[in-house]
Structure formats: structure tokens, C-alpha cells
Write a structure and sequence with these properties.
CATH superfamily of the largest domain: GHMP kinase, C-terminal domain
Structural class: alpha+beta
Strand content: 5-15%
Strand order of the largest sheet: 4-5-3-6
Number of strands: 6
Number of domains: 2
CATH class of the largest domain: Alpha Beta
Distance between the termini: 24 Å
CATH topology of the largest domain: Alpha-Beta Plaits
Number of helices: 9
Order of helices and strands: HHHEEEHHHHHEEHE
């Protein structure tokens, strides 16, 4: 707009619990950047992405593009080149995502501290294989293959200790019909991929948190999104 000293203040209302492992800070950053872009008539998605990443840095302490890119563009996104800001986008098939958030707080600093400084070569190869397989499964729009590539040897084995009852919740979800289960971000959210049995899985996961760890939880069922958009309230 050509106004170097232009500033804004805003109030954000959202139905996402901060620090839950589902990208709350990225949602705030993208929402704020997109709202300001709409007011200034900025159409450049690359510029909006940069602004959102700056907001993420202010909130979380690091300029991560993975969550803000997914929130802005929707679908399945891969940040393949941080220097060039290359974002690969794949339209995923239709499936349900069951998200259960136990009543426990995990500080990002603590979640990072439990990760090893060095990793086994075999574990690194395993994660690369899973990531490559996930991209292929998304391109083939194969939900079962997507769920089968949720395996993780570099994060979940260490961070699950911060999510009380994780193993019981995972097993209960799979027994109820989930195709795959993992931890959302650094936790404590646990998510499951489903097709047609989401309500049963949701109840089973919440029950497992209560019975195995004595934790109450909140939960919801969603589907892969199409990205952030501006809606008029008038």
C-alpha cells in the first residue's frame, strides 16, 4: 500500500487450545496475516506466507513454515526448499481425522528437550522412507496407504512419554477401527485417520485417556481443509 508506518491491532477468537499440538500459533499467524492482506488488498500468497511465518516466529521463537503453509494453502503441503520458499501442494483424498486433546500441558521447550541430539542411521532412513511413502500415498489418493505411513522413529518414541496413556489410546483407536494413529506436533493431541467409524474411535480414545491416565479430554472430528479464507461478517 506504500505506507511504511501503517500499523494494526486485532483481536483473535478461535476454537483451538494453545499448546495442544494442532498448530494453534500457526492458525493465529495465518489468520492475522490474511486479514491484514485483505484490508490492504494484497493478493501475493508468497508475501502472506512470509508475514505468517514472522508471526509464528514471534509466538514460538522460530520461523517455521510447515504449519503456516498448511494452514494457508490447505490440503497436504511439503516445504521442500526453505531458501526459495518452495511449497509443494497435493490435494488429499477424503477421509476423517479424529483429534483428541487430553487435559495436560506440554511446554514446547520440554517437548524439544526429550528429542535426542543424534539419531540412529536406521531410524533416519525409516523416517525418510515413511515421508516418501506418504507423498506417494497422497498422490495416489490411497487413504489406507496414507495411514500406514504415519510411522515415526525420530519423535513419537520419545515424546509419547509426555502424553500419559498414549499407548492405550493408540491401541483403543486401532481396535475401534482407526487406520492409523500418531501424536499431533509435540502433543498432547493424539489423532487418528478414519473412514466411516470416526464417532466410535473418538469415544474409544477419550475413554482410554480416562481409564489409563485419569485424564479428561476434548475431541473433534475434521477432514483435510482447503486453506484459510476471508469471510465478511457484515
Amino acid at each position: 500500500c506504500g505506507c511504511d508506518d501503517l500499523g494494526f491491532s486485532m483481536t483473535i477468537a478461535k476454537g483451538m487450545k494453545p499448546g495442544s499440538g494442532i498448530g494453534s500459533s500457526a492458525a493465529s499467524s495465518v489468520g492475522g496475516a490474511l486479514a491484514m492482506a485483505a484490508l490492504l488488498d494484497v493478493k501475493d500468497k508468497g508475501l502472506i506466507l512470509e508475514a505468517a511465518a514472522m508471526g509464528e516466529e514471534l509466538i514460538s521463537g522460530a520461523r517455521h513454515f510447515d504449519n503456516v503453509a498448511a494452514a494457508l494453502f490447505g490440503g497436504f503441503t511439503v516445504v521442500s526448499d526453505l531458501r526459495k520458499r518452495t511449497i509443494l501442494q497435493i490435494r488429499p483424498p477424503r477421509f476423517q481425522v479424529v483429534v483428541v486433546i487430553p487435559d495436560v500441558t506440554i511446554e514446547t521447550r520440554r517437548a524439544r528437550a526429550v528429542l535426542p541430539k543424534k539419531v540412529d542411521m536406521g531410524d533416519a532412513v525409516c523416517n525418510l522412507s515413511m515421508a516418501s511413502g506418504m507423498v506417494h500415498a497422497m498422490m495416489k489418493r490411497n487413504v489406507r496407504a496414507i495411514a500406514s505411513h504415519l510411522g515415526d522413529s525420530l519423535s513419537v518414541p520419545y515424546r509419547k512419554s509426555l502424553v500419559p496413556g498414549y499407548d492405550a489410546v493408540r491401541d483403543s483407536a486401532m481396535a475401534a477401527g482407526a487406520l492409523g494413529v500418531s501424536i499431533g506436533g509435540s502433543g498432547p493431541a493424539v489423532f487418528a485417520i478414519a473412514q466411516g467409524s470416526a464417532s466410535r474411535i473418538r469415544l474409544a480414545m477419550a475413554k482410554a485417556f480416562k481409564e489409563s491416565a485419569g485424564l479428561a479430554s476434548e475431541s473433534f472430528v475434521t477432514v483435510p481443509g482447503t486453506g484459510a479464507k476471508v469471510e465478511s461478517l457484515s
